[in-house]
Amino acid sequence: MPLRAKQSVALALFWRNQQRYKVITFKKIVCGSICIISLSGCATFKTLNADLPLAQRMFIYTGTRLDWAALAKNEVALRKFKVEPPSYPLADLPLSFALDSLFLPLAVCAEIFH
């Protein structure tokens, strides 16, 4: 194999490795950003861990409701939860919706039997 062909193959492999490194780095940056934003407080965990009597407690999609009330600046709804909303409710909304959907069977049982 001529020297020129070996150099072009080595350059192509180097370029492919560089592209893979950039993609992995971008994925890590996105995942890290989501984790950092989530540290501002997950509305689902805040509302389920609220210090409320059982009769006043809501269970179904409470994190999503809290985020939505914070986005709409609905003071009446925010007072009902007696929990401070997350710092970034728009970023927390999809994560809270996913977690509330995961907890939905438990929330329905808790709502029925309390």
Can you give a write-up of this model?
This protein has 114 residues and is mostly helical. It folds into two domains: 1-39; 40-114, no CATH class. 74% of the residues lie in helices and 0% in strands. It contains six helices and no strands. α3 runs antiparallel to α4 (75-81) and α3 (62-72) runs antiparallel to α5 (89-102). The N and C termini lie far apart (78 Å).
Task: Give unreliable regions as ranges.
Answer: none
Bin the helical content. over 70%
Number of helical elements: 6
Q: Which structural class matches the secondary elements?
A: mainly alpha
Number of domains: 2
Largest sheet: none
Helix and strand arrangement:
Elements: H1 3-38, H2 43-48, H3 62-72, H4 75-81, H5 89-102, H6 104-113
